[in-house]
Structure formats: C-alpha cells, structure tokens
Amino acid sequence: MIQLEVGIVGVHIASHSEVFKKTVRDAVYDCTKGLLQHLGIGKDDIDTIVTASSDYYQGISCSNSYYFEATASYLKDSTKVEGNSIHAFMYALMRILSGHFDTALVLSVTKSTEIPQISALANISSDPFYQRSIGICDVTAAALQAAKYMEIGAKEEDFAEVCVKNLKNAFYNEKAYRKMLITVEDVLDSPYIATPLRELECPAHCDGVCALLIATKEKAKEICKNSLTEPAWVAGVGWSSESYFLGDRDLIKSQALKKASERAFKMAGIENPIKEIDVAEISDTFAPQELLWFENIFSKSGIDAIRDGLTSIDGELPVNPSGGSLATNPPIARGLLRVAEAALQIMDVAGACQVEDVNTALAHEAYGVGGQHHAVVVLRR
Amino acid sequence: MRRVAVIGVGQTKHGKRNDVNYPELVYEAVNRALEHAELTIKEVDAIVTGSMPAPMEGTNDPQLWLTDALGGYLKPLMRVATCGSTGISLAHSAYYHVASGLFDVVMAVGMEKMYENDPQGTMTTVAEPYYQRIFTAGAPGIFAQQCNAYIHRYDIPKEKLREAAAEVSVRNHLDALKNPYAHIKMKITVDDVLNSPVISYPVRFLDLCPISDGACAVIFASEEIAKKSEKVAWVKGLSYAGDEHNLGDKDLVNWESAIKPAKETYKMAGIENPIKEIDVAEIYNPFTYQEILYYELFGFCKPGEGYKLVLEGVVTKDGEIACDPSGGVLCTNPIGASGLIRVAEAALQVMGEASNQVDGCVTALAHAMGGVNQLNGLMVLGR
Amino acid sequence: MEDVRVLTGMISLTYQWVLSSTDARFFDELKNKKIMGTKCPECGRVLVPARKFCPRCFVDTTEWVEVSDEGIIETSTLVGEKLQFEGQPIKPPYGLAIIKLDGADVGLSHFIGGIDFSDPEKAMEKMKPGMRVKAVWSEERRGKITDIQYFKPLE
User: Fold this and answer.
1) What is the pTM of this model?
2) Pairing of the two strands A103-111 and A48-52
C-alpha cells in the first residue's frame, strides 16, 4: 500500500442542457468559474491545469488553445491530454505527487452537438490501410466484442438489463442526459444497430464539461475546512493498453484492464475488491461492456453480477448509480465524469443517486474502439 | 523532490521517409533510444506520446494505432499534445511520471509524418473558426507577423537585423551538416538567404524550417536507476506557460508566455546569468528572426540587442552560448518530435555524445513553442 | 508523390460551431457596421472582438463598448504566392494584420486590402506597423467577420 495523500476537493459537472447553447470556450469558463465559486477560492489558488479534449472532437486543432484562458490558465503551466480525460486525471495526480504543485485543476469538454457523428470520428481513429476501410468504429468494434461475449454465455437479456438499470439510475441524476424508465422488452424491441447491439445499448452522445480540483493533503484540508464535504482521497491508480488491431486482442479477457486494476488495488491495499469496493462507476459506453469490464476488474462473472442483482442500485456493489455513459456521453469528458461521480459518492453529495455507506469507490474508463486503453482509480473516504 | 535524469535518447533519420509508414517510423526511434539506454522495452514502466493535431496525418487519436510500435502493449500509455510545444510537454510529462514516484523509467516519444497531407492547411485549423481562422496563413503567416512586430518595435537597423537573421540560417544549416539525423543538408551563404523567395513578408524561404518526417524518443529515469548509468543528464529545471488564444490579445515582442517560464526554469535550476551559465541552448527556432527574439526573451541580452549576439559570434560554438548546434528546427522539423529533439540534443551535449559536441558542456537548455504563438516550455539539463 | 506507392484518401467532416450570445451580438452589430468590444471591470481593457470574460482577470465582461472602425497596424505580413494550402480563403498575394482599433486595448486580426501588392517592399511600407487603416465594409453583410471586407491603409 502506498499513501498518496492527494484528494479531490471539489467537482463541477456541467450538463448537456447547461452547455449546448454555449461555445466550448464559454462553457469551459462557466464550469471553471462554477468550481472556484463552489470551493470559495480564486484563480490564483490553481497551481497547474491539465485539460482533456481532442482536436477532431472539436474542429479546432490544438484544442486547448481555444479555451486556454477559460481554465484560468493565463501565464500558468497548463497542458493537455488527448484521447480520454481519465488520463488527464492521472497526469494531474502525478504533477501533485511530484511536489511541484499543490493544487491542480482537471477539466474536460466535449460538445457532441457541434461535431460530426461520433462513429465517423471513431472510424477515422482506425488506421487508413486496414480497419478504416471496413468500417471499424466504436459501434462495430463493440458489436464484434458483444457477439464474442454471447458465444461464451452472455445473453441479449443481460445487455438489456444493463440499459434498464443505468437509464433508470439516470433519473436520480440531475446532470444526466438520457433518462428512461424502460423494460428489458423495450430494449429488445429497439432496432439492431449492429448485431447484437440494440439502439438503446449504444451511448447517448451529448455535450458536457467536467472539472475537478485535486490537492495535496494539507491544501485539501485547508480548502475543505469551510465546506460541508471532506476530500475524496485518491487511494490507488492504474492504467494500461491493449494492442491496436482488434484481431490481436482477446476481446473478452482484457489483460490490460486486469493489470490496471491490479496496480490500483495494490496501491490502495485492497485484497478483496468485491467486498471492499462499495460503489463503482464503470465504462458502459456500450451496455455489454459494463459486464465485460466488471469481470476483468473484479474477477467475477459480469453476467452473474447483473443476473443476481449485485450491481443494481440496491445491490451489494452498485455499478453506475449516475447512469453511466449510456445516459450521458460527452466522449472525451466521460472518463473524468466517472471519477467525478465516484468522488461525489465518497463525499456523500451525490444527491438522489447517493449510495449508502460509501467508504471506497472505484472509477473506470475504457477508450479506443473495443476498449483498447483502460484506466482505474480507487477513491477512499 | 525526486531527482530525475535522461538516460537515453533515440531519433530517426529525419526527412522524407517514404520507406516507412507511421508505426514503423516510431518503432525506429523507440529502438534507438532503448539501445542508447541499454534497456529492453520490458524495463520501461510507462510511455507518454504525442504529435501535432491528429488532422495532420488524418488518423484520429493516433496513439491508438501507434500503441504497439511505441512498445505500449500492456503498459500505461497516454497522449499529451500541445501543438508545436508537444515535444517539451512530452518531456515534462515523462519527468512528472517519474518525479511522482509512481514510475521509475518512462519513455517520451514524439513523432510526425508530414508528407502525407497539407501541413499548412492543418496548422490553420488551430485558429478558432469565428474570428481568426481565415486570417491564419499557416505557420508562416503567423510567425511573419511576430517577426515584423519585432523588427519595428526597437530601433534595430533593418539591414543589420536581416543580416543577422541570414547568419542564423547559415549557421544552423552548417551545423546540420554534422548531424547524421538532420533533414536539410545544405551549404548556404548570407546572400542565398537574403535572395531566397518571400514566403510571407518579411520571412523568406531560407528563413524558415522544412517539413519533415521523423520521430524521437527520450527515456527518463529515477535517481536510483540513473545512478547506475554512465549516460546521464539530470533535469535541473522546467517550466511552461501559455497566453491568450487571440493573436491580437498579446504582446508578441515582449512575449510574457516565453519570458515567464524561462525565469522560472532558471530559478529552479539555480541559474542567474543564463548566457554565462548555460553552455548550449537548443532553442525552438522554426524561423530565423524568432531565434533572435528568443535570445532576448530568455535573458541572453537586452531587448532589441539580439542581432548583436549573432553578428558578434556570441551564439556560435566558439562563443559564449552555442545556440542550436544540432541545426535546430530550422533544418529538421517533424513537429511533434521537434520539441523533444531539443531535449534529446541537449541531453547528448551534457552526456558528451552529441554529433556537434560543444566542448565541456555541463548545462544545456531545451525549449519548444506551440499554438498560434501561444505556448512555451523549457527544460534545463545538466551534470 | 513520385515513385512511391500510396493509398489516397479524403476526410471530409462537417462542423457546426455554436455562436455564443456574445458572438451573436458582435456579428449582428457588424451587419450594422459597428465594431463592438467588452470592457473588463478589473483591468479596464476593452477587448475586441467582444468577449464573455477577460482572459487575464478571469471575470465576466458585460459592459459593451463601440470602438472605431479606424485604427493602427500593430503588425502585418504580406502572404506571398509561394504560400498556398488547402482551405486558403484568398489566392495570394494578400495582406494580413493585427489592428488596434481606436478605443480598443487589444488587436483584431484581419485582411489588409485596397493597395497594390505587386511590389512587396512598397506594399509593406504602406502596411507596416504604425500605419493607420480604416475598415472597408462588404456590400452584403451576413453576420460574419468578413462583413468587414478588409482594412485599407489611409494615406
């Protein structure tokens, strides 16, 4: 176990409805300002900034360049991660751990409404020689993966249950985008997008900004002393990568995710994750993936977990009380949303989504078609 | 704070690399760095990679396609990208990976393949579309405006400044001849530069950098690991800053986003008199005039006097501070790697292994710039 | 490319960037031949184009101020024929500049036009830093930055 002594002191999520009429720059400014006001601190209390956005997902290259000053970055050491915002969290954490900075703002923005279809953008992440020309994108890769999963026992009903669970959970999350009270039949009646994936099992692309402030233990305590919340302490982190070609990977058993989880658990001193984790925000960009990633993280059948109700909101280990990406998917920002939602649970301010007695929470994100890159964060009270 | 050092570097032969695809280009640099550091990929704990905006090569999130070529299979890998300053941001990120205590050996890899599409067209998309994009004529259009502002700011005799700029070009090109990895290998004269065609006034063809294919990898390590290595360049200081996105919001001559991080880097490294205490400065110099302006911004001389450093031979190998003995960005520019190449060359100088070695180099500075004249980062390496 | 085997492809993507209420008002005023800025309550600078917030002070800038359509060139360049790229708005040669309009505290990027670009040295003299310029408005204005056609150096 390693004592990291870094905490998340505050979170600010801007929902789709708060963002879609604003430019990226203005939406980022409002979110940053909102976080500062919420914490009762000023722009000079931010030592460093790590943002996450992707150029094709904005239509403005060097994407942080456009909203640079909106993150209070003027003349500050402010940098950008691409691909997924969960890496921005990791990088900001490392900046704090290095001792060079006491506070770091982590922020991510994506406006799905301004940009081409997400699947078009995912398709051009496929190399131009092999996978692009056969239409490998986020949907088709997830579909191939789900088909494989069904070969070893998963059923369409299992995938549908994930939708029912998460879209209902979303009702209790005022920041969620897609909220629906549906049944398994409703999901199975919705059209196939790419077999075996049904329309409702695919993500709800939307606009969003997510910001959080992390700080050293001393600074975190100082900032939180006038607030009702305690920091959510970072207990363990891990991230890892699969090979690029879909055919090179085991689409079901993700060694990368196993490695990432193991590293995070070891750092956090967790020996029995299923028992010790109280709530988890797991990447459910496509419904079957929630079950797959659950299996790889917890070494327990994801299919059994959903069938036994283990991961339901009143189960032993609720997964995605926020509604997950199935409810709210601003692509690059969604990784940071997982961490933010997990932090809200630890801080006991998740509102109507609050799970009881949360001491340890897990946030996971997968990005890259079919889940190429994985990252895991464990937070503790 | 944890001490961190560079223990190995690798570069591809830069230029028009029609013999390799993007992953193969990257693989070449990675292998060279591992060889130099005498490590296998197994011993690398994490990787951080970056390049210019993805539209440059036309593959979104290129780190996905390049994961395996980077040696990233089953490793922690992330993409950090800040346009032209990507290279220095990569070095900083790798430094923080190690300094955090989470990793002991981390490799930074920058790359670019620029002959496969239209680089100026891509660079123009860095400017937001509402107000500035149509007034952005690629990189030359922007830097030419900075150069022109500089020329008119101080009472610099125009001919002397043009001569100095031309000499900067001549020097860099001569130095590149000694660099086995450099792209442009050309012996030129001051007259060649002064008579070369205008690209965007006042910048002429030989005042500016080429576009190049290339990749660079630099391996950073913790003190325990570095102490066991014979090739070591310690990170003494680093800093980064950016200013506003709107080109008209900032003073391009008294350029704070370059002045501030230089001061902070020097402070961290305990440098008070840069021109005396730094032996080699690998400055990000895609344009001749810009290199001269950077002398002033980095405190080598007073504002308006940069041209004197050139004409008096201060910034040559035989002078007080050797600037860009590698030939700089002016002769080799695979943009995503360019900033990292500055770090690699600075490290080689400190290690005593540079192809154009400056005798007795103890302290070297690396720098890169990015965005539409928006971002600057520096790193000082030493023994 | 010469003797090299290549795979040729094209990526064509459509974006629809939102106009913030600040942008929308700025562009509407352009249709009326008015150039607007907003003033920062902390540093007092008038920012053009109008902004929602001050980039340096990080506070909302809600006071709208009209600035002149005349001003001074802060810097400029003459884009030459050799600089051509996909998506370029005009075929070179053409002039670019950053102009500080009377009443504004920061510069606005725009075209320089209405002068003869065939002799670059002469043209650069006319559009060098310090020269005064005035906006030439487009006949048809649509609420875009090109409602100003270019800035013309004054004799």
Assistant:
1) 0.97
2) parallel
